[in-house]
Amino acid sequence: MLLDNIRLARGVFQAMKPPQAPFASGLPERELLGDFNNDGILDRLLVGPTLALERGNADGTFADATGGSGLPQTARAATWADVDRDGNLDAVLIVGQDYAVRVLLGD
Hints:
Blueprint: E1 3-5, E2 13-15, E3 30-34, E4 43-47, E5 51-56, E6 62-64, E7 77-81, E8 90-95, E9 100-104
Antiparallel strand pairs: 1-2, 3-4, 4-5, 5-6, 7-8, 8-9
């Protein structure tokens, strides 16, 4: 189940409808929350049949930020980590048949 931060109160979430795109062929399997652009608002990485990056807005909604992000189309697994120790979250992905590790550095 995906939860939407509806900003009724700090930390209040409500169940939301699954996104229609880019997951027309299936629902996301995992939602990873983190502030990848260091604006103080949670963003999310949706992992499923395809990957999607959504930037959090101050009103509690999310906007697609996948285009130009460098995300591959699919990944077997993903997590947030500060790989280069610069204080910014980076996306760590396991991709391909050989389970290669791919790191996308954050701002």
